[in-house]
Structure formats: C-alpha cells, structure tokens
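One such given next:

>
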Amino acid sequence: MDVALLGLEQILTWQTMLAVVLGTALGVAVGVLPGLGSVVGITMVLPFTLTMGQMPAVAVLLGIYCGSVYGGSITAIIINTPGTPQAAATALDGYPMAARGEADLALGWATTASLIGGLFSVLVLMLAAPQLAAFSLNFTSVEYFALGVFALICIAQVSQGSMLRGLLSGAMGMFVATVGVDPVIGDMRFTFDSFALSAGISLIPAIVGLFALSEMFVRIAERYTPTVKVDFKVGFKMPPRSAWRGRLVLLLKSCLIGSFIGALPGTGAATSAFISYSEAKRSSPNRARIGKGEPDGIIAAESANNAVTGSALVPTLALGIPGDPVTAVMLGTLIVQGITPGPRLFIEHLDVVYAIFFILIAANVAMFAIGAVGAQAFTRVLRVPESLLMTAVVVIALLGAYGVRGNSLDLVIAFAAGIVGFVMRRTGFPIAPMVIGMVLSPMIENALRQSLMLTRGSFWAFFERPITLALFVVTAAILLWPLVRWLLRAAKTHNDAQDRRT
C-alpha cells in the first residue's frame, strides 16, 4: 500500500496531470485524422519528451496511446473512414448507425466501451501482471502460429453475403503483406525489380486508400445517380442503462479478449478488435443485426482494442518485450527516461510501475471526458458540404500516408488501394477481411517458418503442444459449427416433413 501511495504521489503534480490531458487530447486528434495513428503520434512527440521529467514524459506517451486508439472510432462512425487500423471493425456497425441518424448514440457506445475496456485492462494489470507476464512467456512461435490461424476465422465471420468473397479478400491482404524482403532468407519477393517496393507495402497507406479514398470514389460515382441525403444527429448521447441489459456479458468477454491478446508480445489492438468482433458476430444474441448498425459490434470492437492499451504493457514492462508496435516505440523512450523494463523493475522500482498504472487510469478518464465534450465539435464536420468534407479528408489522409515514412511511393500505394477498394465495394467484396489479412500475415508467416525450423519441418509436432492443440481445436469447432448447424436444420426439416406426411 505504501508503494502504491508513493506511485500516486509521483503523478499528482500539475506537470504530470497537464501532460496526461494534453497527451490524451493530442492522441484523440491524431486518431481522428485518417492515415495517422498511435505510432505516428508518439513518434512526433518523442524529441520533446527528452526535455521533460520522467513522469510527465511517460504521461504524454501513454495519453497519446490511449487517446489515439479511441480517436479512430470517431471518423469511423461519422464518415466511414477509420482514423486508425484499430477502428476498422468499429466502422462496420458505427457508420450504419450514423446513416440512420444515430451518430451521437454510436459515439456514446464507442466512448463508453472504450473507457470500460481501458480501465478493465488496467485493473487486470494491477491484479495479475506477474501471472499474465509469465503466461505470455510460455508462448513460442508455434503458439503464435496457432493464434494467427484462429484469428483468420475473423475473415469468415465479418464477411457479408459470401464467405468465399471474404476469404478471397483476406487472401489478397495476406499476399499484399508479403511484398518486400523475405524475413528469413532476405530475398526480394514480388518487388518486380523495384527498389522502392523492397521496403514492402505499409499498412497505413493501404488503409487510407481502402477506406478513405475508396469512399471518395464511391461518392463521386454516386453524384450521377439518385442518392438519399443522410441527416446525421450532432452531439454525444450516452446509451441508457436499459440498453446495457443483455450486453454486459459481451462487454466482459470483449475486455477479456483484448487484455489477453494485448498481453501477447507482437500482437496489437487491430488483431484484438477483429477477433472480438468475430466472436460477437458468432455468439451475440443480436448477431443477425451485426454489420447493419448494431451496438454490439461497436461494443466488441472498442472495448477490445482499448483493453490492449493496458495489457500490452505487461510484456513491455515485465519482460522488456514490446506488446505491440506502439510499445516498441515507447520502449526506447522509457529507457532514456531511466525506466529499464524487465523483471527487476517490479522488484526495485515498484512505485514507478504503480505510477504508470495510475497514469493509465487518468488517461482513460481524460479520454472519456474529451470524447464526450468534444464529440459535438468532431461531428460538426458533417455540416460541411460533402465536396469540401471529402476533399479535406483526402488531403489529410494523403498527408498522413506520406508522413509515416516520408516516401512518395506511399501516395501511389494509397491511390492504388483506393481504386482496389472502390472496385471491391462495387463488386460486393468486403474490405475488412483484406485488412485482417494484411495485419495477420507477417505474424503468421514468421511464426510458421520459425516453428517448422524448430520442429525440423514436422507440422504434426505442433499438435504435441497443449496450448497450440487447444487453439486448433477451438478454431476447427468455430469453422465447422455453421456446417453442423446447417446439418441440424436440414435434419429437423426432414423430420418435420416426415411428421406432416404421417
């Protein structure tokens, strides 16, 4: 208790609290702007944190982290353009709600779920950080491959209309992610002798094109056909308490999924959001409406991706292993500030660990306040004429795509992805599975090849590991369940027909 009070004392200074508020506000702004993201936001302020004290510097970074993960949901709901890859799943139900005139309520669901998910992950860290760190340490490349295969079922779950089209879209995303240098032998793959492609195709420019630019192309095409004007509500509306009935189990499950995925080194909020959304589509009582403007989809995606913000720090602080790309950037800054992540941090500087926990709590509370108060300002962009709004979105998105690496090729990638996204929208191919494939492809490929090296090329050796076997069994059960359900319905129909004849 004394150590916890000492940690609380370290953050209760005006410098640290101001850093939390400003960092969170900046994070929300970065998340709102399409094409930017947590890594970009943190990278922008890294030079400035070197002149700050230890706790204010950590507060700014954690504030940007929490705020940016949430901020992407605002544009995902309002204009169907996720500000960050983590919010891609949120757009699947958030934008349809906005199109019905319920943008304010959709923002309320997203903000509340984000707050609960973030606070839940901090609670998990404070109660079980050593156990979670020990559990994630048991994961080898074999377990990561099994986890990636399990995550791939999201492609089938989020696909609308045709599972085959969803699988083809996901396969396309996995292929795009393989462009560049082979991570094992160093050979060039699918670069067509182009040096510019040797660095691969960055996820952020691809996301910008698939969502932002394709949306612009679709709206341009619709100028020549009759369209229905959508009157969006402006503001922020908290979901009523009665609306949470029947959804608390989903909320808890999504928080658990986000905390679990976030604690595994190398994964991130995008993966957890898609897995949680897939689980909601499979098990939610309202699953038939998910993808058509159902709050369950927003709750699943936002609570899961925000639950990653706290749990991702488990391997980062306890093991010195980044929990996701964002904490990988933060890791170097923590070392510069005199915080050396590792097991001894929990022994020698436990007060610093508690201070980080309290900063995360403050950042999540600040995130909720900024989202609630600033939602009306963010939704005012809907009053701007559509031509000006979409132009501004494209300009900001392209600036964000270029700013990630400062490579003009990313502008070409974004534009090409926009054309691909436009064609996919017009032909009924879902875009979300392609994003899932791009996110999961590097993890699955690296884990598979490393695992085959460890097992000397024997894939059957994977099934000798209990965790891997369990993941494979769950994956098979979920994939086969639609077939089993169809067979049961067919048998029931056959029996009913026989009963009517008799």
User: Anything to note?
Assistant: The chain has two domains: 2-463, 465-502. The longest helix spans residues 466-501. The CA atoms of residues 213 and 418 lie 5 Å apart.
